[in-house]
Amino acid sequence: MREQRETVDVVIAGGGTAGHVAAIQAGRAGVKVSLIEASSMLGGTMTDGGVFMPNHWHSPRQAVVQGIGWELFKQSKEVEGLRIKPMTERRAVDTPGYYSNINVPIYATLAEQAALEAGVEIHYHEFIGEVHQDGNEWEVISFARGIKRITRCKELIDCSGDADVVRALGRPVDKARARQPGTLQYRIEGIDMQQVWEGEAQKIYDEAMEKGELEKGDWAYFGIYPFLWYLQMGGHNATHIYGCDTSDADGQTAANIEGRKRMLRMFEFVRDRIPGAERAVLKQMYTRALSREGCRVIGEHVVTLDEFMAAVPYDDAVCNAFNYIDLHNEDNGCEEIFHESEELIPTVPFRALMPKDTSRLLVAGRILSADRKSLAGIRAQCTCMAMGQAVGAAAALAVQSGRASRDVPVADIVALTVENGAVPLH
Ligand SMILES: Cc1cc2nc3c(=O)[nH]c(=O)nc-3n(C[C@H](O)[C@H](O)[C@H](O)COP(=O)(O)OP(=O)(O)OC[C@H]3O[C@@H](n4cnc5c(N)ncnc54)[C@H](O)[C@@H]3O)c2cc1C
Known about the structure:
18% strand, FAD/NAD(P)-binding domain, binds flavin-adenine dinucleotide, 2 domains, 5-stranded parallel beta sheet, single chain, 31% helix
């Protein structure tokens, strides 16, 4: 194994939803960034995980998240030749926000190009395994095929989705025993929906459940939506894996196996039993099962459900976090809790992105410091991207001013993100 030593300003663990934006922001601000990503592309859950539905760029009343994520989203629509409808032309349907889809290959490629243009060194297929603090510097040890990389840096950002860096440091994390179910994304195509009769499809599904041919969770939202919905979605985002824990390779492996077993069972059921689905094809399967929640760091502040629902104003808010609570469960599929008014726009305090009693270490994405229920709202992709942009800005400003990131004035962080297109906070 080749041992490679490097020195950069900032190391970012994970180039997923939060991490790719953090890297682009820090790189554009002029610092040297190393982005270590375990998979083969940028975007994480949004791209190679197959959850290509970032919500929410705007509320029914105003833009809530823009910045680098929005810039890439707009660019990807241009490449696709699609016009983004202005929000005044959009109407919220069943949730107070707007879902939008990205084209995975285009978005992942544009994100990669933007990172390279910002001078970011990308290391795919590489895992951060060990981390040591040495005075005001970090030593980060990562492993890839044939390479052991030892990188020294001044600031470290954990965007790993499972707090891998924070855990490697032995810092405490909160890992709820009751977790939301996970999902392996796949898509069945070729169902002739004109031939499908809702009542008949429901009866066939109900009978298969009664006979034990299908398992609870194969169709995730059995308690709140008809089975027709599964067929319309081609199974995408519609199967649950209970107890899914992807925080280590053993858990990830078990979840992948369970997800694929459920996928195949559902495909065979649909093709063989649902009239209109005789020509169904199992068209797409994404690379890995995904957890909706894993390890949350214990930060200088823990965001609570009450704070989130009341949109409590924080002095150190770094970005907006507009979303409803979307808590998936085993009872009926999902519990949704909406804000009393669409004028309530929650925010993320900088302290929730700082693991407690640490310095020169920040986090972003679904590992932020929040209680379980508020996480079910804050974990939305646009918010993860906005958090990523804020910590990327904070780390860059820290390196340039010779301070630790936790001491960078929040006004400076927000100003830098606004220079890069973020929504000014009110
Ligand atoms: C099934 C499902 C459906 C969802 N639906 C929606 C939706 O419709 N809309 C919405 O907005 N949000 C949705 N969410 C929530 C949202 O997608 C996630 O909360 C968000 O993408 C998490 O972003 P992240 O950056 O924290 O993690 P990720 O995007 O998962 O990124 C983490 C990255 O870190 C890498 N990594 C991990 N460990 C290491 C390591 N040790 N070294 C190097 N790299 C590492 C991973 O490969 C990955 O690329 C959904 C989530 C799930 C699971």
